[in-house]
C-alpha cells in the first residue's frame, strides 16, 4: 500500500512539473532565458542585410533589437532563406519573424501578427530597355523573379506571370538586370535603396500599387502575452521618437503611415 501511495505521489508531482512547464508562456520563456529569438533573411536591404564590416543590420534588425530592449532581454537573430523562415517558426526554432512579412488574410488564419509597423508598397520593376511591360497586367505570359512563397510572387501569379525562383531581393533584381527574367515585383523602399547605391543599374519602375501592404511581426498563434508585449514595445518606440530616428536613418521619412 505504501509503495502504491509513493508511486501515486510521484506521478502527481511529475504531472505537476510537466503541467507547469507546458503552462509557461512564450513571453515567460523569453524573459527567463533573457533572449528574444528572431528570424530574418539578412539579404534584403535596407531591411535586413550585412554592412561592409559583415555586421547584420537594417531597418527590421534595428526594430527587432529595440523590441528586445523594451522586453529587457537580448535580441538573437537566426538568418535563413525566406521560404524557410516561417517553417522555422512552426518548428519553434525562434519566437518571431521580422522580415517585412505582409499581414494577409491567408497568413492570419494560421499565425498572429503584431500591430503594423511599416507600410510597404509594391512596385513593378523591369529592365531599362524593356518596353513590353508597362502595367501589372502586362505580366501575363512573362517571367517574374521572386522568393517562391513571398506575397509578391503570389501577386505576380495572379497577373499570369511565370515565377523564376530566387533567394532574395538582390538576386531578383540581378535576374531582371541581366535579362534572365522579364520583371520582378518588390518593395518600393528596397528599390529606392538599391538605386541609391547602384544608380546606373539598368532597371526601372514601370508601375506601383495604389495602396500599400501593412507589415507586422509574425508570431505563432495562441501567444497573446507575447503579442501584447511586442505591441507595447512598438507603441513605446514610436512614442519616444526611436522609431522616427530609425526610419529617417534608412528612408529619410516616417514609413509607419
Automatic annotation (TrEMBL):
InterPro entries to which the protein is assigned, alphabetical: SBP_3_CS (IPR018313), Solute-binding_3/MltF_N (IPR001638)
Record's keyword annotation contains Glycoprotein: no
Stretches assigned to the Solute-binding protein family 3/N-terminal domain: 35-254
Intracellular or extracellular location(s): Cell envelope
Gene3D superfamilies hit by this protein: Periplasmic binding protein-like II
PANTHER family associated with the record: ABC TRANSPORTER EXTRACELLULAR-BINDING PROTEIN YCKB-RELATED, MEMBRANE-BOUND LYTIC MUREIN TRANSGLYCOSYLASE F
Family in the record: Belongs to the bacterial solute-binding protein 3 family.
Protein name in UniProt: Amino acid ABC transporter substrate-binding protein (PAAT family)
Amino acid at each position: 500500500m505504501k509503495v502504491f501511495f509513493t508511486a501515486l505521489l510521484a506521478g502527481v508531482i511529475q504531472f505537476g512539473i510537466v503541467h507547469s512547464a507546458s503552462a509557461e508562456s512564450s513571453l515567460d520563456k523569453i524573459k527567463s532565458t533573457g533572449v528574444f529569438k528572431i528570424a530574418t533573411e539578412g539579404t534584403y536591404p535596407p531591411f535586413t542585410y550585412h554592412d561592409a564590416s559583415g555586421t547584420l543590420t537594417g531597418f527590421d534588425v534595428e526594430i527587432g533589437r529595440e523590441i528586445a530592449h523594451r522586453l529587457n532581454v537580448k535580441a538573437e537573430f537566426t538568418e535563413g532563406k525566406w521560404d524557410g523562415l516561417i517553417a522555422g517558426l512552426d518548428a519553434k526554432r525562434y519566437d518571431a519573424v521580422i522580415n517585412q512579412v505582409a499581414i494577409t488574410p491567408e497568413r492570419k488564419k494560421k499565425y498572429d501578427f503584431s500591430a503594423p509597423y511599416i507600410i510597404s508598397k509594391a512596385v513593378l520593376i523591369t529592365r531599362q530597355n524593356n518596353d513590353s511591360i508597362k502595367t501589372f497586367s502586362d505580366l501575363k505570359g512573362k517571367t517574374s523573379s521572386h522568393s517562391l512563397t513571398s506575397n509578391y510572387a503570389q501577386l505576380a501569379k495572379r497577373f499570369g506571370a511565370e515565377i523564376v525562383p530566387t533567394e532574395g531581393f538582390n538576386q531578383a533584381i540581378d535576374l531582371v538586370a541581366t535579362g534572365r527574367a522579364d520583371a520582378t515585383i518588390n518593395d518600393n523602399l528596397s528599390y529606392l535603396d538599391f538605386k541609391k547605391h547602384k544608380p546606373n543599374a539598368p532597371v526601372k519602375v514601370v508601375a506601383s500599387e495604389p495602396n500599400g501592404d501593412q507589415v507586422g511581426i509574425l508570431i505563432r498563434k495562441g501567444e497573446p502575452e507575447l503579442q501584447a508585449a511586442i505591441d507595447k514595445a512598438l507603441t513605446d518606440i514610436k512614442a519616444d521618437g526611436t522609431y522616427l530616428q530609425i526610419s529617417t536613418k534608412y528612408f529619410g521619412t516616417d514609413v509607419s503611415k
